[in-house]
Model the fold of this input.
Amino acid sequence: MKTKILVIVLFTAQFSFAQNNGLTAEQIATYQNNMMTEELDLTENQIDKVSTINMKYSEKQKALMEEEGSMFGKIGRMKDIKKDKDAELEDVLTEAQFEKYKDDVEPKIRSYMRKNMKK
Done:
């Protein structure tokens, strides 16, 4: 349960960063693409697919953040977006790449977003 709460809090911070600093969905997706390409040693085919996935979900995240309402009210939908994105990434990445994404890359992305949110 603590892990789920932590994931939600970190995911919320990522969304808040994107909204508060006016990042576009393209900027968010580009950062994720660069990080994943570098850290996961993606093939050209994987880069294309991951880029499409990152853009799709960055647009969904950005749209959700721009909706009226409190962050608390959006948490469930944010969690669903993350779950759907992970499912698509799992189909594109090898098992080892997906594991590294979950263990190493995703936390680095969240950390970057949190650090830059304070600026």
In short: The mean pLDDT is 83. The two ends are 31 Å apart (CA to CA). The helical segments are 2-20, 25-40, 44-66, 71-92, 95-117. The longest helix spans residues 44-66.
